[in-house]
């Protein structure tokens, strides 16, 4: 089996670690997340990496004795709800593949492969929890809760390693962080390129807006006398969609809606929505966030409901290291490819790593540009090309 075929077979096996049968849902602090990490650790050990799990639950594999400059390759193994099998996972599997390719060789760099335990923030209101903890940040407040009221502290008890030393897991000799990731967009496929070099990662904010009105009888309260929390939420969602459309470069998504009490014949007394708002220009994103607050206040006042806006995170845009990107481009040219440059609209652990080490990202073409969807798909040839590029960068001194 080729190294690329092995990476894809492993992605299939990881897909079996899911909280729900028939889909891939692997959120932080669940036994399924730990099961996936155990698979990754077994493959790391087979590849000759020395492994450890940190306090948050990140898995770190190391090759080399610390005498050479180290390249760190990583991505995340948590997933969104009903996810695809390659988002995050592929980047870790390519790091492990890289270690396998380098077995018995005399590479110019040490290699550290990191599997981050929580990038998506699907379960708890955290942002890049895994990569921040990897870099030695204090763990977030354990009293944070998920939608069912379970605490982050309980999640850390399941996924974390309480015996691990605190502090940064970034090797002192790290010179580069590389993250290979499916593109999650349609550009490479449309332009006929297996790989792309990422120039920048778009910043984004996530908000929770909670509206409180008055629950009441759906048959008896006249329309003009209602304080319907869901109708207010719906009006806000449409106004935010219009705001992003009018900007032209922003994207905004309302992906979570919770309505209480939640019965067909009860006027909603409470509604909560998420707003995911992204813009490559940090200043313009800031202004749009201000507009969102105004929209919420205006709708709440007109509809006589109470509104609370909670900014879960607000991440800046990050520029990738041009020299590292060029190194990957040269490696790609040596195997007959000419990868285009493109920006990432999705967030990645590289954002957090960029504060501490030069970062670069390699995008792999994915069918239809589809991701955060079980239909995520890549080809073995494209995975092989990505592996060749990463391996060349770790192998060579230049
Ligand atoms: C990560 O998948 C993101 O939401 O950008
Ligand atoms: Mn994702
Ligand atoms: Mn991802």
Write the layout of secondary structure elements.
Layout: H1 3-15, H2 31-46, E1 50-53, E2 59-63, E3 70-76, H3 89-101, E4 110-116, H4 129-134, H5 152-159, E5 174-182, H6 187-191, E6 195-201, E7 203-212, E8 216-217, H7 229-247, E9 251-253, E10 257-260, E11 266-267, E12 270-279, H8 282-303, E13 306-315, E14 318-319, H9 322-333, E15 341-344, H10 350-353, E16 359-364, H11 380-395
Parallel strand pairs: 3-4, 3-5, 5-16, 6-15
Antiparallel strand pairs: 1-2, 2-4, 6-14, 6-16, 7-12, 7-13, 8-11, 9-12, 10-12
Helix pairs in contact: 1-3, 1-11, 2-3, 3-11, 7-8, 9-11
Bound molecules: glyoxylic acid and manganese (II) ion (2 copies).
What does this structure look like?
By secondary structure, the protein is of the alpha+beta class. It folds into 2 domains: 3-202 and 317-395, Zn peptidases (Aminopeptidase, 3-Layer(aba) Sandwich), CATH 3.40.630; 203-315, Alpha-Beta Plaits. Helix content is 34%, strand content 23%. It has 11 helices and 16 strands. It has helices at 3-15, 31-46, 89-101, 129-134, 152-159, 187-191, 229-247, 282-303, 322-333, 350-353, 380-395, and strands spanning 50-53, 59-63, 70-76, 110-116, 174-182, 195-201, 203-212, 216-217, 251-253, 257-260, 266-267, 270-279, 306-315, 318-319, 341-344, 359-364. The strands form 3 sheets. Strands 1, 2, 3, 4, 5, 6, 14, 15 and 16 form a 9-stranded mixed β-sheet that branches. α7 (229-247) runs antiparallel to α8 (282-303). The site of one manganese (II) ion has 6 residues, from loops.
């Amino acid at each position: 089996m080729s190294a690329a075929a092995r990476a894809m077979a492993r992605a299939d096996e990881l897909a079996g670690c899911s909280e729900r049968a028939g889909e891939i849902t692997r959120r932080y602090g669940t036994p399924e997340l730990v099961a996936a990490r155990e698979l990754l650790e077994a493959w790391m050990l087979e590849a000759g990496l020395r492994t450890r799990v940190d306090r948050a639950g990140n898995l770190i594999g190391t090759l080399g004795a610390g005498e050479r400059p180290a390249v760190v390759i990583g991505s995340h193994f948590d997933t969104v709800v009903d996810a695809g099998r390659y988002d995050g996972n592929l980047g870790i599997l390519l790091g492990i593949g890289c270690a396998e390719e380098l077995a018995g060789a005399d590479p110019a760099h040490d290699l550290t492969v990191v599997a981050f335990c929580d990038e998506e923030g699907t379960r708890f209101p955290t942002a890049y929890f895994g990569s921040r903890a990897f870099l030695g940040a204090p763990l977030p407040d354990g009293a944070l809760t998920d939608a069912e009221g379970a605490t982050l502290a309980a999640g850390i008890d399941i996924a974390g390693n309480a015996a691990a030393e605190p502090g940064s897991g970034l090797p002192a000799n790290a010179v580069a962080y590389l993250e290979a990731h499916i593109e999650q967009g349609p550009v490479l496929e449309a332009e006929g390129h297996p790989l792309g070099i990422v120039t920048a990662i778009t910043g984004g904010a996530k908000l929770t807006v909670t509206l409180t009105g008055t629950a009441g009888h759906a048959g008896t309260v006249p329309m003009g006398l209602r304080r319907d929390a869901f109708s207010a939420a719906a009006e806000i969602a449409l106004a935010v969609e219009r705001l992003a459309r009018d900007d032209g470069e922003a994207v905004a998504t309302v992906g979570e809606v919770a309505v209480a009490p939640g019965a067909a014949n009860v006027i909603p007394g409470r509604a909560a929505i998420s707003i995911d708002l992204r813009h490559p220009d940090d200043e313009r994103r800031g202004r749009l966030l201000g507009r969102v607050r105004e929209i919420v206040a205006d709708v709440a006042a007109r509809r006589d409901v109470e509104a609370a806006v909670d900014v879960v995170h607000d991440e800046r845009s990050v520029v990738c290291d041009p020299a590292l990107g060029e190194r990957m481009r040269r490696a790609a040219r040596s195997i007959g490819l000419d990868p285009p440059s493109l920006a990432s609209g999705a967030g990645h652990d590289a954002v957090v790593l960029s504060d501490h080490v030069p970062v670069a990202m390699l995008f792999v073409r994915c069918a239809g540009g589809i991701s955060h969807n079980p239909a995520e798909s890549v080809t073995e040839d494209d995975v092989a090309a990505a592996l060749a590029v990463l391996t060349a960068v770790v192998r060579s001194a230049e």
